[in-house]
Design a protein that fits this description.
Layout (H helix, E strand, L loop, with lengths): L10 E12 L2 E12 L3 E5 L6 H9 L6 E6 L2 E2 L4 H6 L1 E4 L11 H11 L4 H14 L15 H13 L5 E5 L7 H14 L4 E5 L3 H7 L2 E6 L2 E7 H4 L3 H16 L1
Parallel strand pairs: 3-8, 3-9, 6-7, 7-8
Antiparallel strand pairs: 1-2, 1-4, 4-5, 9-10
Helix pairs in contact: 3-4, 4-5
């Protein structure tokens, strides 16, 4: 699907019948949904529901057993490079080179992506400031707190200015002030980018997301506006339990 005004795809994330089997176990089974350009969408589910696996399928990190995943119209398996150019991915507990500093790590990532030097310098300054890394810019990542490591991972995802962001538990390990800052950043990014955000914090969903996709036991059980899941925290928790327990029974 193409937006006539820009010539760019209007659907930026597409899961089409995604399944992932490990022997007889179905980690993800026939999950389909789309996320349009400019939307911040929450991706929810209890532990073990298949959230992280689905995100890895969407990013091309895992190959699906069935179905297809597209980023900006590019199949993440058959068109890996153009899909990767459009995608910024923050995995849960993402790997970092602990002997590097944030500055040397991000320059390495930018060089790997073959970013022009002037652009890379500009983007490094941008992510340093947006992710509040100035105080640890020259310190070894291995000596940083979990919160700072998470911010380095976020900076890596933003470095090449991708059109699509897939973020798996981005506020994990952050203190309340850092959580607030990152939420504001995600809201700002959502004005021009497409964001799929996995979180266990339902308050976070209300703060930044206009839509919710909910999975349980590897299957899609809800897809709709955030307010349809509940207009405040307690109501959302009750609806979450209702949907996940009903699907499990």
């Amino acid at each position: 699907m193409v937006d006539d005004s820009s010539g760019q795809p209007s659907v930026m994330i597409q899961a089409d019948g995604l399944s992932k089997f490990y022997g007889e176990f179905a980690a993800v089974q026939n999950v389909s949904f789309t996320v349009p350009r400019g939307q911040v969408c929450a991706f929810l589910g209890p532990n073990g529901a298949g959230k992280s696996t689905t995100m890895k399928l969407l990013t091309g990190f895992l190959a699906p057993s069935e179905g297809t995943a597209l980023i900006g119209g590019f199949d993440t398996q058959s068109d890996r490079l153009p899909a990767a150019e459009m995608l910024g991915y923050l995995p849960e507990n993402g790997p970092l080179y602990t002997e590097m500093t944030p500055a040397t790590f991000l320059r390495y990532v930018g060089n790997t992506r073959m970013m022009p030097k002037n652009l890379l310098n500009q983007r490094m300054e941008y992510v340093r400031d947006q992710c509040a890394l100035k105080d640890v810019w020259g310190k070894a990542i291995g000596k940083l707190s979990r919160g700072y490591r998470q911010r380095v991972g976020m900076a890596q995802a933003l470095l090449h200015d991708p059109a699509v962001l897939i973020l798996d538990e981005p506020t994990s390990g952050l203190d309340p002030n850092q959580v607030h800052g990152l939420r504001e950043l995600i809201i700002s990014l959502g004005k021009t980018k497409t964001v799929l955000l996995s979180t266990h914090i339902l308050q976070e969903v209300h703060a930044v997301c206009s839509r919710v996709v909910l999975v349980n036991e590897g299957r899609l059980v809800f897809d709709g506006p955030t307010n349809d899941l509940g207009t405040e925290g307690t109501a959302m928790e009750e609806k979450f339990r209702e949907l996940t327990l009903a699907a499990s029974s």
